[in-house]
User: Which sequence fits this backbone?
């Protein structure tokens, strides 16, 4: 009986030890994004806004190579200042200024690949980069300011894309015990509007908790 308990104890310790060095980890994450709209036309003046995001991450570590797919739902906000001409008035003479606010809820699926260049018991440092596919789940475009209090022509309003959006993320991450902190920049590759004038560029900070 003593031999049985001894063997069971050794097996249990062995399983725990293996789980601590497991190459697989996953968990929830939450963070903020600083969204900066990039306009290719001079009619718009961009204003950056802060949004929230959260989701799940899965990480596979093979030596120093990291493969980390994620699923993140985020709210991205931005403002565009522009000048418009009220209906029936002369352009350039009776122009008024207005601001439209964009709020987009997206499902983002980053596929990150990285390199872990520091790995000691209490801290791990890594660099990550990869493509991101985004699907717009909800959108809202509204006029938040209007100097003339008149109707803004529909030609001045942004019409958002309905297809998937693509971007590229790159950044650094650090693990402290069970916490995984990532700081990244998101380079917008796809236009987010139907007229192909706006791209989404994001600065993000995420904090994850490693369950495994």
Assistant:
């Amino acid at each position: 009986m003593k031999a049985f308990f001894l063997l069971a104890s050794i097996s249990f310790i062995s399983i725990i030890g293996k789980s601590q060095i497991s190459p697989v980890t996953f968990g929830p994450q939450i963070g903020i994004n600083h969204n900066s709209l990039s306009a290719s036309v001079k009619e718009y003046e961009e204003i950056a806004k802060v949004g929230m995001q959260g989701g799940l991450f899965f990480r596979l570590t093979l030596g120093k190579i990291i493969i980390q797919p994620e699923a993140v739902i985020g709210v991205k906000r931005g403002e565009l200042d522009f000048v418009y001409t009220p209906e029936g008035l002369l352009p350039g003479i009776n122009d008024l200024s207005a601001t439209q606010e964009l709020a987009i809820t997206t499902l983002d699926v980053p596929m990150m690949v990285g390199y872990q260049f520091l790995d000691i018991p209490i801290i791990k440092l890594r660099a990550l980069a990869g493509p991101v596919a985004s699907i717009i789940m909800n959108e809202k475009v509204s006029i938040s300011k209007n100097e003339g209090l008149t109707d803004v022509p529909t030609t001045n309003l942004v019409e958002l894309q309905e297809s998937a959006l693509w971007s590229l993320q790159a950044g650094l991450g650090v693990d402290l015990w069970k916490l995984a902190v990532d700081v990244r920049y998101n380079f917008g590759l796809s236009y987010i509007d139907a007229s192909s004038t706006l791209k989404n560029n994001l600065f993000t900070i995420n904090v994850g908790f490693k369950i495994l």
Q: What stands out?
A: DSSP finds one helix and eight strands in the chain. The helical segments are 2-20. The CA atoms of residues 104 and 170 lie 22 Å apart.
